[in-house]
Amino acid sequence: MGPLRPDRRALAVRALDSEIDSVIRAYGTDLAVGLWIGGPTGGAWYERNSDVSYPTASAIKTAYLLELFAAYAHALDAPLPGLDRLLGRDGHPCLAPFSRAQRDDIRHALRGASARKIGRIMMAKTRAANHVYNAAANVATAILGGPAELSRRIRARDPAFAPATVRRYMLADRRPRGENTATAASLAAVLQRLASHRAPGLTHRLVAAAREAMKTTRDRRGGRIYVKTGYLPPHPIIRVWSGWRESGHGSTVCVVMTCQPSRGRRARRRSTDQLVAIVARLRNILLGSARQISAPAHHRRLESSQPHRDSNSHLSPSTYRRLF
Predict the structure, then answer these.
(1) 35/253 Cα distance (integer angstroms)
(2) DSSP line for 164-211
(3) What is the pTM of this model?
(4) How far apart are CA 204 and CA 225, in angstroms?
(5) Top-level CATH class of 6-322?
(6) What pLDDT sits at residue 264?
């Protein structure tokens, strides 16, 4: 079948809008949502509130990864200069969020680590305890000059990354400096550079190394899904899914950002559980709609799919669990 006529695409977008509205209404509270879906280059096929900044939780670490690998381009596998000295400074802000026992674990896990190892741990490619996982991002931030300097580096990398802002170390108190934030569009731009194998200032080898450091899984059709999620407990509750699906037919980049004010312990627990399902549902709707809503030039490169209401059948429940 040839490309859909523009009016058919407009109808598909309206249907997608309606389904997303239905999912958000079913949640039954004041949920804030930022959505973006598109190809590995170019603008969005569909977006909603994609220019609004939301807390990112760990989803911003993909931008950290590019900066870490760019800074140590010629020594990805050498011990990071100054890392062991940094790990010995219990009072440093990058280690302050952790207990004494956790800091001992962190030193044991990260001592002598290379940029590649730090990147793989903070992206959840290499399994690690949660405190080690977040400490890897924190020492990367410190080595790159701290939150403000890391923000500057990210913005200088690509104008499309500019809304991404690093204000604090992972797990640090969120009140004094605020959240690390980004827009759905800026997170998507970072993912697009990796999905397209081209990032400003990085060689093909470095981009390939960054892609290799991403957590991945496969769907039933043999496609590969690269993913970086984010979660923050109250206040507010944050759930983010960001990644791209890649197959021989092309790549589809997708970002789902959600932000839910919490109201008490019971409501918080219910909201947290519901948000997992809501984010998965929104992601599945967007990815399942890719063929219907993509720009006509992309149709022949995108894999065929069932209409989005039935599009989840090619991904198993275990695959979805691995994506969070």
Answers:
(1) 11
(2) -B--S-TTS-STTT---EEEHHHHHHHHHHHHTT--TT--HHHHHHHH
(3) 0.88
(4) 20
(5) alpha beta
(6) 53
With vertex at residue 148, the alpha carbon angle to CA 147 and CA 150, rounded to the nearest 5 degrees, is 65
Tokens of 187: 């997170």
- How do the domains of the chain map onto residue ranges? 6-322
Cα 239–Cα 241–Cα 245 angle in degrees, nearest 5: 170
Q: Please write the tens of the pLDDT for every residue from 92-151.
A: 999 999 999 999 999 999 999 999 999 999 999 999 999 999 999 999 999 999 999 999
Residue 134 phi, psi (nearest 5): -75, -35
pLDDT confidence band for 323 (50 / 70 / 90): very low
- Which tokens belong to 159? 């104008």
How do residues 146-171 score in pLDDT, each as one tens digit?
999 999 999 999 999 999 999 999 99
Say yes or no to pLDDT of 195 above 90. Answer: yes
Q: Distance between CA atoms of 263 and 8, rounded to whole angstroms? A: 42
Tokens 């640090």, located at residue? 172
165 strand-pairing partners = 181
**What are the C-alpha distances in Å from 201 to residues 70, 143, 149, 204, 208?**
7, 19, 17, 10, 13
